[in-house]
Design brief:
heterodimer, A: mainly alpha, 11 helices, B: alpha/beta, 2 domains, seven-stranded mixed beta sheet, two-stranded parallel sheet
Chain lengths: ~300, ~425
């Protein structure tokens, strides 16, 4: 019975971690869906958002989570992420319209270095505590331990995903985003304003980055390591597909649960610390059978 | 156009004819630092403290023995390949080349260990580095000074034994070693296994994959295993996450003992209330109540010449930078007494490092009483076997909770000699006799 509880505990812990990976993966999916660009800078955007927010709470003198200054800092950071979207569209993307995807990808690598340097240059490289007001005392049901922060984050992430799914499928902008993703030139020819669509999608990705920055910042402390959470999102994307929001969620859950189960039950047999590479191996095996990912679009080209 | 070409030519000639950036009467000290990357928040303040100490000597005493200290930073980003680049770039600078390197990372130390020995430039790895290089007969140019990893580990087990009521009370106890899955993290596995055999406790090792962002799997295993004590061998973000995960599974923080590199404000402040009660080994004191620290404030920061943020003065990592300054520069002072008051070569500084003698009187004269432990090095012993203190986080600051705890050389030294002899055999090195 104790073994069953332990298995359940590891499984639930893994699923909750998976939701947090999905949060980061979502930012990648949003931009890929709308522009066909793999945004290498998503991790750096999480760092920028988290660092800007936490330093603003300090400068504005926020004393408690969710007091007036806390909310003001959140609003300003929100504005910073939208301003970043405008700047990226104007400086990075606009000059590269209709260029090959690999060129856009390289541009986002450059953007990563810029954002990492700028965030640390402006706000410093010190580690900062971020308190979201969620209790750190675990909830124990039966003999299964549940961390409250992960539960709250999972619930909030679920709400965010539902909102994004509605946005993409039910609104005009959502349909326009999908059209732009299919073909820039065709979308332009039917009057879809490419520039403003890009600003919208980078803004949404910026807000997802802010959300991820808050949740991961509360877990890790706000510091450079936030950029590294992007590494956790990559196997999720491979598994779930680069263009599917449900794929990012399901992929996150599979990756989270399998890496934790593997670490606990296989790890001790092979020396441990396998949770960094195990998800990549799982994703690779998966690719052998379904190269487009779990929910990715199967690309059929006429030759 | 002609004028422009002439100006360019003049500029080029000027650059070619530019004098050496370092004056002849200066001692060059390379500073390899990581102001960027995952470990910047702990690495940068330490090297800032080191530079602040040298700046203070220049301001207060006009350098060391009348020789001005100069330095140049090189960013390693805590990457081994960049450490090698920095080493190559800095080793020949200054009138006599680099005096001594402080890589600030065990992997970084391994990366240049053999090169530095070939170039006769000493490496100081203060509280870190390759443990068996304590045997100076095999490793003449490596100095894992003050307390190496293995010695520190024996002091930690002694501290745990005191808390349990004596060494005999360790029998049957369960200790979990939660370690960074790296050269640094794995370094104490052999000595802990040896101590477990000797004292009859059970030790289990839990590697945490770099950088340690998500450790749920590890801590759920610890919850299952229910150890009596946890030794935390973390670095950077790993330590804060470990402390928070320990709180999440309800493991008592005052039963967790971190190593030197998991015992700074950077490890506890981000963990918030979860860190209250957490214990770590301490190489030195924290705070500003030391004459040497006051001198740095007066001669450097009050004149606006600080190398970092004034808020970091007195923190554990910044004070460790001062310790780096005290030890490295003392080696130059000792070497100057033998070779003369002039800029020294690496191999001359090596003599100084091998003949350090931090007596209580000398420590006091340096303004570092209660900051730096007394220790003495020799050709045979490149560590110094300094004792270790233990500190506890009270929610706001570190508080010392022990006196200096001596290390157990009856376990450590034989292991070092066996390991060093094996290295000597593998590399075909004839050990020096001393």
């Amino acid at each position: 019975m104790a073994d069953l509880f332990f298995f359940l505990e590891v499984l639930i812990g893994g699923l909750l971690s998976g939701v947090l990976y999905s949060l980061v993966a979502l930012g990648f999916v949003l931009i890929y869906k709308a522009s066909g660009v793999f945004n290498f800078a998503q991790g750096a955007m999480v760092l920028l958002a988290g660092l800007t927010f936490v330093r603003l709470t300090q400068i504005l003198g926020s004393e408690h989570p969710w007091d007036g200054m806390f909310v003001l800092a959140l609003a300003i950071t929100f504005a910073v992420m939208i301003a970043l979207a405008f700047a990226v569209e104007r400086v990075v993307l606009r000059p590269l319209v209709n260029q090959a995807q690999i060129i856009m990808f390289m541009a986002t690598i450059g953007l990563t270095f810029f954002l990492e340097g700028a965030a640390q240059g402006v706000w410093g490289s010190q580690v900062h505590r971020l308190n979201l007001g969620v209790s750190e005392l675990p909830i124990i049901i039966g003999d299964v331990l549940l961390p409250p922060l992960d539960l709250v984050a999972a619930a909030a992430a679920a709400a965010m995903v539902a909102g994004l799914a509605v946005f993409f499928s039910r609104t005009r902008i959502g349909r326009a985003l999908r059209a732009v993703a299919d073909d820039h030139q065709a979308a332009l020819s039917v009057g879809i304003p490419l520039q403003s669509i890009w600003v919208v999608v980078w803004s949404v990705a910026g807000i997802v980055a802010l959300f991820a920055g808050l949740v991961w910042g509360a877990k890790l402390g706000v510091q450079f390591s936030l950029t590294l959470v992007a590494l956790k999102a990559l196997p999720v994307l491979i598994l779930g597909g680069f263009t599917s929001i449900p794929g990012a969620i399901i992929g996150g859950l599979i990756i989270g649960a399998s890496e934790k189960l593997a670490e606990v039950f296989i790890g001790p047999l092979v020396g441990g610390a396998i949770e960094n590479w195990f998800p990549y191996m799982l994703a690779l095996v998966f690719l052998l059978f379904r190269p487009q990912g779990l929910f990715g679009e199967k690309i059929i080209k006429r030759v | 156009m002609k004028l422009r070409k002439l100006s360019m030519a003049a500029l080029a000639l000027g650059l070619l004819a530019a004098p050496e950036a370092f004056a002849q009467g200066e001692q060059f000290v390379p500073v390899t630092i990581y102001r960027t990357g995952a470990y910047a928040n702990t690495g940068a303040p330490l090297m800032v403290g080191y530079m602040d100490y040298m700046a203070m000597l220049n301001e207060r005493d006009g350098g060391v023995g009348g020789v001005k200290l100069t330095w140049e930073e090189c960013e390693t980003g805590y990457q081994n390949d960049r450490m090698v680049e920095c080493y190559e770039r800095l080793k020949g600078k200054g009138p006599t080349g680099a005096a001594v390197f402080n890589p600030l990372g065990t992997g970084l130390t391994y990366a240049i260990l053999e090169k530095a020995a070939a170039d006769k430039i000493p490496i100081v790895s203060l509280g870190y580095g390759r443990t068996d290089s304590t045997d100076g007969r095999v490793f003449p140019y490596s100095f894992p000074l003050i307390t190496n990893y293995w010695s520190q580990s024996t002091a930690k087990i002694k501290f745990i034994a005191v808390k349990e009521g004596g060494m005999d009370k360790l029998k049957g106890k369960k200790i979990a070693n939660v370690h960074h899955d790296s050269a640094y993290g794995k370094e104490t596995i052999p000595v802990l296994d040896e101590q477990a055999k000797k004292y009859g406790f059970e030790v289990k090792h839990y590697p945490v994959a770099h950088p340690g962002l998500d450790q749920k799997a590890t801590w759920l295993q610890i919850r299952q295993a229910r150890p009596d004590w946890v030794i935390l061998r973390g670095w950077g973000v790993m330590s804060q996450v470990s402390i928070k995960e320990a709180a999440a599974i309800g493991f008592a923080r005052d039963k967790m003992v971190g190593v030197y590199w998991s015992g700074s404000e950077q490890d506890t402040v981000p963990a918030g209330d979860a860190a209250k009660g957490y214990i770590s080994a301490a190489m030195h004191g924290s705070g500003t109540a030391f004459p040497v620290v006051q001198d740095v404030i007066r001669h450097v920061y009050d004149k606006g010449k600080g190398n970092g943020d004034k808020k970091e003065i007195g923190t554990v990592m910044w004070n460790r930078g001062i310790i780096h300054g005290l030890v490295n520069i003392e080696a130059i002072i000792v070497a100057q007494a033998k070779f003369g008051k002039k800029p020294l070569k690496g191999e001359e500084v090596q003599f100084g490092l091998e003949n350090l003698n931090f007596t209580a009187e000398r420590v006091k004269a340096l303004g570092a009483e209660n900051l730096l432990p007394p220790f003495k090095t020799s050709c045979r012993d490149h560590e110094g076997q300094a004792p270790v203190k233990f500190q506890q986080w009270d929610g706001q600051k570190w508080v010392m909770i022990s006196d200096w705890v001596t290390t157990d050389q009856s376990i450590v030294r034989p292991m070092i000699e066996v390991s060093a002899a094996s290295y000597a055999k593998e590399k075909n090195i004839t050990p020096r006799s001393c």
